[in-house]
Amino acid sequence: MFGQLGKEHISSIIKLQLDRVQSRLADRKITLDFDQSAMDFLCEKGYDPAMGARPVKRAIQTYVENTLARELLAGTVKDGDAIKVHFDGSQLVFAR
Predict the structure, then answer these.
(1) Mean pLDDT of 19-31
(2) Distance, CA of 43 to CA of 53 (rounded, Å)
(3) Which residues touch 93 (CB under 8 Å, ≥6 apart)?
């Protein structure tokens, strides 16, 4: 039997998953800096008491990777950018 995961466990898992995203951006020299509001948002979206941490990967794909991909395609985010990510109350915001 496994014990139920708490928010601190989910936060650690999210950090690991975001490190993976960051490593995929390393060749483009793009860095991501998530503030506490963004981490709290991802914890909320990536946690389901019944499912545990399974939704984390989907939350990161939906709210981080998909948004970042749109920004890259639009030319808003360019190679070498340092991106600060925060939650504005309704969505994650990627700002240079």
Answers:
(1) 96
(2) 10
(3) 85, 86, 87
Residue 33: helix, strand or coil by DSSP? strand
**What confidence tens digit (pLDDT) does each residue in 41-93 have?**
999 999 887 787 789 999 999 999 999 999 999 999 999 999 999 999 999 99
C-alpha 39/C-alpha 71 separation (Å) is: 20
pLDDT at 1 over 60: no
Rg (CA), the chain: 14
Residue 39, Cα to own-chain centre: how many angstroms?
Answer: 7
What are the two backbone dihedrals, phi and then psi, of residue 22, each rounded to the nearest 5 degrees? Answer: -60, -40
8 Å CB contact between 71 and 60: no
Q: SS3 sequence, 62-73?
A: HHHHHHHHHHHH
Give the position of tokens 């709210």. 63
CB 46 within 8 A of CB 60: yes
pTM for the predicted model, two decimal places:
0.87
